[in-house]
């Protein structure tokens, strides 16, 4: 059976139909999950947490995607820098998802905002705006370049799970973010850093597969098999979980 991998959506208003708000996710996340053999399931925001839990019970994995800023109230800080768009409902939804994934050991891949979210869900903090909060760093926000443009390298911790999954010590990445991990959350390992010290890869040891990237591998996997391998590893971890739960479910219904 193919694993179901949930991808949370965000809400938006289309300028030509402001009366009809929509939920959406970037196509590239859906395509990356499908290319790796998983079945993408878009998760809308729901009023009733019980509905969300009913959906979660049927998912085998999670992809926490990139997107808008995480509001600093999620890590008990005041706004002290240039935030871009935030959405308290999205923060709430994704924090529930990240904590659920941690508690239930659900295979999870975090990308960009998703990586920041995982860190915050475990008590970590963020640079609210790298340009003002980390002034001597590289240029991490490159909005005018193609989304798959490689910008800087990332050195990978040789003892990390990320090193095992990617199979390389160093990798070139795209860079499309203005927030970043500051203090690591409880039990979180920085498994890769840029030359300027910014955390670019992280993982949660003790969980089967809770890995995250600050870069956007969904824009890179077609050109570099290292990133396809990351998505395939997520799918494999989900398949393993699924095959471990199927016999239990079948014997329970017998
Ligand atoms: N907060 C950075 C957003 C980058 C992106 O997903 O396009």
TrEMBL record:
This is Gamma-glutamyl-gamma-aminobutyrate hydrolase. One of its GO terms (biological process) is polyamine catabolic process. It comes from Dictyobacter arantiisoli. Keywords: Hydrolase. GO terms for molecular function: gamma-glutamyl-gamma-aminobutyrate hydrolase activity. The keyword Hydrolase applies. PROSITE patterns: GATASE_TYPE_1 (PS51273). GO terms for cellular component: cytosol. The keyword Hydrolase applies. Pfam families: Peptidase_C26. InterPro entries: Class_I_gatase-like, Peptidase_C26, PuuD-like.
